[in-house]
From TrEMBL:
Residues 180-207 form a coiled coil. It comes from Flavisolibacter tropicus. One of its GO terms (cellular component) is efflux pump complex. The keyword DNA-binding does not apply. Its main location: membrane. It is found in: Cell outer membrane. Gene3D superfamilies: Outer membrane efflux proteins (OEP) (1.20.1600.10). PANTHER family: OUTER MEMBRANE PROTEIN TOLC (PTHR30026). Keywords: Cell outer membrane, Coiled coil, Membrane, Transmembrane, Transmembrane beta strand, Transport. This is Transporter.
Amino acid sequence: MQAQEPVQLNLKDAVNYAVKANQNAKKARLDEENSQYKIDEVRARALPQINGSAAIVHNPLLQMSALPNIFGPNPNPNETILVAFGQKWNANAGVSLNQALFDKSVLTGLSAAKATQEFYKLSAQLTEDQVIEQVATNYYQVLVQRQQVGVLDSTIRNTRRVQSILESQYKNGLAKKIDIDRITVNISNLNSQRQQLLNTLALLENQLKFYMGMPIQTPISIPNADIEAIQPKAVAKNDSVNVESRLEYQLLKQQEELLTLQKEAYKSEYYPSLSLSSNYSYQGTGNKLPVLKGEKQGVNWFDAASVSLNLRVPIFNGGATKARIKQADVSIKKLNEDINNTTLALNLAFENAKTQINNSIITLNSQQENARLAQEVYFNTQNNYNNGLATLTDLLNAETSLTQAQNSYSSALLNYKVAEIQLIKSQGQLKSLLN
């Protein structure tokens, strides 16, 4: 079986794939689609309701009725006789129509269905944002983890070089066996750490595929980050965010509208309703099965029709409607508290994101200075080594410090990108990562 080619993934590819394939995003879009069908369902209540019916009834024993004997050749009003009314067979087929002329609950329900559609639309957008945040954060976490593996690889290479030098010195009687044993143990520990980092990297890559909705078995290839392209920018302390533009806030406001419409639906129970009804039926009756039989076979057929205008006026239901309205008021008040709490939480998230970004920049400046100093130490040590004033071990240690400082700076840049995701989220601009 031919091995599958790895899927090349940059951040844009990953988030676009996730928006289309993630199961939560798909479900949110299905909820949005389903909301249109709910509108159609409520709209149907305002359209004519037409029903057809048919039945055949067999009466093996007819109901007897007690009557005074005033019939026949010898009537006697003081005598009671039992008389069977009806026919053994009855058949009927008919159609009925009902049209609502005025029903405030239908109008309120239609408004609520449209508001529900907008609610699910916002919910789908929020779900997409959450998916983008998960994928983007996890994507940079993969790059950070890979950078840590790179730092450890550089350390292992330099340590092996020192090991080789010590072994050569030991053969010439210039080093002790314990020094070689120590560095061998050190290399073994470094290899164990490397394997742990690789295991964590594999877990992060699998988690990334899970967030994307990609089959876990699919191999992926993530290009190395373009460190040079990362341009950190500090956030001004007086910057603020428009909370009303956040989907979390808009979703709660839409929910408030839905609760208000629910309250109006309860109020509509106080209003009268008016409808038009009509019925038409064709019936046959006789002592034989009426189907395909007429008057000559003892079966009589006749039709009937009716039209009615129906007015329903609610008078008293024990205060149930009033209680439902009060419950709706309480639900709205509770939601207003949620809105206030969400407003505080969104402002807090923005302030924390600003702080994290600015702290990341401070760390970056520190790591950049460390890298500059390590470069200077390495340059000086190299000159001293060339002039016989420093040992090879000193030079290798300086080289290791330089590599670690440079890699730490690169890791700090990637961690800045992770913090930047939270800032973009707090500003409600996660969709910008799709472009």
